[in-house]
Write a structure and sequence with these properties.
4 helices; 86% helix; elongated
Length: 101
């Protein structure tokens, strides 16, 4: 995705909305296929994003809802990172005490 061409996608969305959505769907499928172990979870998450966009009623409300969804995911990630940090600190302490004993 490092070669993402924003202008291409913007122009496609403006000039050929059905083509934009077909190309978007194809690209999303390709991205999900790169992660086969998480494919089901990613597909479900994308469906949730799409449903949120459709139900929002306007692009502004969709953006707000998606930012809220992103915030929720970041909070979960932060909590898991904190747990991982505590576990690794505990393991580090355990290893250090085992080496000096």
């Amino acid at each position: 995705m490092g070669d993402f061409d924003f202008d291409y996608w913007k122009d496609l969305a403006e000039q050929d909305p059905p083509g934009f959505f077909r190309a978007r769907e194809q690209l999303l499928r390709q991205c999900i296929a790169l992660h086969p172990q998480q494919a089901q979870e990613l597909t479900e998450f994308q469906a949730h994003i799409d449903a949120t966009r459709l139900l929002a009623g306007s692009p502004l409300l969709a953006s707000r809802a998606l930012f809220s969804l992103l915030e929720d995911q970041l909070m979960l990630l932060s909590a898991r990172l904190g747990e991982l940090h505590r576990e690794t600190s505990g393991l580090r302490d355990l290893l250090a005490s085992g080496q000096t004993a």
